[in-house]
């Protein structure tokens, strides 16, 4: 389950990066627009541009290391 990992990262990186959660069952147009095939899928946007995406469970240390690279 990714929710606790994301919540922890959101606290660790508060003010530096924003995390948004989308319920694709309630908003299927978003899943279609971003070609989301599996859950969880993480989209990384910077200045309005999609710069990365990855899917599946990611252990907390790996997830946080991904976040750090986007802050540079």
Write the layout of secondary structure elements.
Layout: H1 3-12, H2 28-33, E1 41-46, E2 49-55, H3 60-70
Tell the overall outline.
Answer: globular
Write the CATH fold name: Glutaredoxin
> Quick one: CATH class?
Alpha Beta
Residue runs with pLDDT of under 50 for 5 or more positions:
none
Arrangement of strands in the largest sheet: 1-2
Reported for the largest beta sheet, the result is: 2 strands, antiparallel
Rg measurement, Å? 12 Å
CATH architecture: 3-Layer(aba) Sandwich
Helix content: 25-40%
CATH superfamily membership: Glutaredoxin
Q: Report the total helices.
A: 3
The mean pLDDT is 94
Keywords: Redox-active center
Protein name: Thioredoxin domain-containing protein
GO cellular component, one term: cytoplasm
Domain Thioredoxin: 1-63
Would you summarize the structure shown here?
It contains three helices and two strands; from the N terminus they run ααββα. The chain has 72 residues and is an alpha+beta fold. Strands 1-2 form a two-stranded antiparallel ribbon.
Key attributes of the depicted protein:
72 residues; alpha+beta; Glutaredoxin; globular
Structure explained in plain terms:
Residues 1-63 form the Thioredoxin domain. Keywords: Redox-active center. Belongs to the thioredoxin family. The chain is 38% helix and 18% strand. The termini are far apart. It has helices at residues 3-12, 28-33, 60-70, and strands spanning 41-46, 49-55. It has one domain (3-70): Glutaredoxin (3-Layer(aba) Sandwich), CATH 3.40.30.10. It has 72 residues and is an alpha+beta fold. The protein has a two-stranded antiparallel ribbon with strand order 1-2.
